[in-house]
Amino acid sequence: MNCIVVADQNWAIGCEGGLLFSLPTDMKRFRSLTIDGTVILGRKTLDSFPGGRPLPRRRNIVITRRVDFDREGCEIVSSPEAALEAAAGTEEEALWIIGGGSVYTALLPKCRRAFVTRVDAAAPQADTFFPNLDKLPGWEVEAVSEPVTENGVTYRFVDYVNTKL
Ligand SMILES: NC(=O)c1ccc[n+]([C@@H]2O[C@H](COP(=O)([O-])OP(=O)(O)OC[C@H]3O[C@@H](n4cnc5c(N)ncnc54)[C@H](OP(=O)(O)O)[C@@H]3O)[C@@H](O)[C@H]2O)c1
User: Number of folded domains in the chain?
Assistant: First the structure.
């Protein structure tokens, strides 16, 4: 499976339950990579989507400790391990960890690739972070895109591979 994330210079990914940047080209890429696949996400990330609704045209597996949690269009599981069990049999390329911070941290070691949209800016108010892949043993950069500039920020698509898997 793979994970996909937008991170700033300091690997920050979120603030007060929301995203740090609005990047339309990145959103299109996220959609085209994950469409028709399976996404695994934490309950807080689900709540950050418009109307708290799951992503359309994708199987949404949501992790929560709340035993009574229910949301239309979502499969609810009680742990990251249970999410992987629910997704067993899914084609590796079609299984995506999409956040947030706690779910990335839990499942990153099991990801083969990390598709990181790396923003050349710092969001000092951020409160949620992704592990620093440049310092994590086993993770190597496989490809870096040309820069994209949008809404006043420049970013690149940086693909990492987990050489430990
Ligand atoms: N930049 C990006 O690409 C990106 C992507 C996704 C999200 N984000 C941002 O990340 C932030 C959210 O991240 P977050 O870490 O605060 O929340 P999160 O990972 O989305 O969700 C956390 C929730 O997931 C459940 N959970 C997590 N670990 C669990 C475990 N081991 N067992 C059972 N349930 C577990 C719990 O739900 P309950 O509280 O219901 O028990 C927990 O409160 C937001 O700011 C969001 O916008 C950024």
Answer: 1
